[in-house]
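The pair is quoted verbatim as follows:
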Amino acid sequence: MLGLRCLDGSALAVVPIASLDRGGTPFEVTLELWRDGDSFGAVGERCGYFLAGLAARVAAARAEGSPQAARWPDPDDRFPDPVPGDTAREPELFAFRYRDRGDVLSTGELRCSLRTSSMWVGRQRSAAGRWRVARRAVIEAWGSSGRGVRAVLTSAELARFLADLLAEADRARAGHPPRPAPPAR
């Protein structure tokens, strides 16, 4: 289990569960969401391939010499560029709204969007300062009860979360049970 510390103080665990083909062979994963040890929802049928692609894009964006490095000197602000044509103010890095097409919409949701914020660094009402612009990944989860939680991550934290999630997904596909949740970060 992978734990995220949410802004409300709760712990959100994202647990990859193997999806099995008709013969019982694991081939992909679904994500179970747990909030403070209680079942919160299930999302993302066959999402492992997509998450692996995102992890590679985050790693490439964080690398020195990447196009993002030229625009964002702090590696924690470097995230993949949105897909061409995406004009959203807060582009989504992923969104899993239910487990499969037959599910009702209230079975859970997990999404990650990119948010940019600016803060004036320096004395108030003084020209002796500068804007500090930061980008963060915002992971939001909604449970089957309709209640939501939110965690804010740097690109390094998102990269670590994705790497841990993919490692657990590999364990799940190999038939191993999920590991106990570490302390939420």
The chain has a mean pLDDT of 86. The radius of gyration is 18 Å. The longest strand covers residues 109-122. The first helix runs from residue 48 to 62.
